[in-house]
Amino acid sequence: MKILITGANGQLGRELTKRLQGTDFLPTDVAEMDITDQNATRKVIESYRPGVVIHGAAYTNVDGAEANPDLAYKINAVGTQNVAVACLNCGAKMVYISTDYVFDGTLGRAYNDFDQPNPQSVYGKSKYAGETLAKHILNRLFIVRTSWLYGDGNNFVRTMLKLGQERDEIKVVNDQHGCPTSTKDLAEVILKLIDTESYGTYHAANTGVTTWYDFARKIFELSGNTRVKVLPQTTEELNRPAPRPMYSPFENRMLRLAIGHTVRPWEEALKEYILEFRK
User: Which molecular-function annotations from GO does this UniProt entry contain (predicted)?
Assistant: First the structure.
């Protein structure tokens, strides 16, 4: 099965590219295909004629989206619409990567795949708009929501490891709860899904719940850094432009029910990541 990836230079795109070596796949990023250009998107996708398009390209600057809403919607909503139309025209399945930011974080328990989204930030609203547009266009669609992603690229884990070498103290938010997710585990979910006809919305995160503060502490524990002191702070103290979901862990219910797949605990995935990173 031929697979086309958008956002191939992102963390997930890099992991998928590694896993698909030796197969018939086409990695694309903005240089190869600008998803905001409908004609260019249609030309690239329809000329390659993939069986699946894994759509990971997105505007992910959460705070930047508040200042640039048109850009966020152009990429996350209109760009997704363009990809979906091209998939429809060539009969391809589509995987749309979405986010925990489609929820408001006030439910008080882990969100399952059937809970009603209520995004509060421009980023979350633009990603949910992408979900909605794709669903209106395609039947052969997997919406895969994930959270707190880390892999090959700039991410929270690498930032903490770097700061831990530079500082004696680091302040980290302690009132936002969620699920750190390894690109390895997310890529595994996606590659399992595309071999099925079980279309729909899926939550895909490593299991368990933590805060950014406890996540940072675990990073330093696993990396053997006992020198740096991690101090808690509140979201209000951090004073970022975009609202964050305060409690947005995922229950991966549909993965379990539809394809019998479970995702490992976040601590186990993090340990593997840090060991590989240090090598």
Answer: dTDP-4-dehydrorhamnose reductase activity
